[in-house]
Amino acid sequence: TLQGTKEMDHMSPRLRAFLSEPIGEKDVCWVDGISHELAINLVTKGINKAYILLGQFLLMHKNEAEFQRWLICCCGATEYEAQQSSNCLKEWCACFL
Q1: Rounded Cα gap, residues 87 and 85, in angstroms
Q2: Which of 35, 54, 80, 91 is the most buried (most CB within 10 A)?
Q3: Are 68 and 36 in contact (CB under 8 A)?
Q4: What's the whole-model pTM score?
Q5: What is the sign, positive or negative, of the torsion defined by CA atoms of 55, 57, 49, 40?
Q6: Where in the cell is it found (predicted)?
């Protein structure tokens, strides 16, 4: 999975927790960068699970810029939230795909 503890040192506790295990049935609010307000917006759009958000990221061919634009424009994310969450999903893919 993760290469050594050096990489882990630069991660937030929330990102570390998300990367520590498979996605399973985790709610979307488990994704690093997803605030309570953004989670409500996502749930309203039918994106209530982390794996559904991951699916959207994968449909966009893991293109972080495109995914961030979609989160900001369609879901009301801030730039910071969009960056954090796309990084979280990218890191998860690097560990588990």
Answers
A1: 5
A2: 54
A3: no
A4: 0.88
A5: negative
A6: Nucleus
Q: What is the pLDDT of residue 3?
A: 47
The CA–CA distances, whole Å, from 35 to 1, 28, 38 equal 26, 10, 5
pLDDT the model gives residue 9: 63
| Weakly modelled stretches of the chain, pLDDT under 70 | 1-9
Q: Which residues are bridge partners to 27 per DSSP?
A: 49
Q: Determine the Cα angle at 21 with ends 20 and 27, to 5°.
A: 105
Q: Annotate the chain with DSSP letters as a single string.
A: ---HHHHHHTS-HHHHHHHTS--TT-BGGGSTT--HHHHHHHHHTT--BHHHHHHHHHHTTT-HHHHHHHHHHHH---HHHHHHHHHHHHHHHHHH-
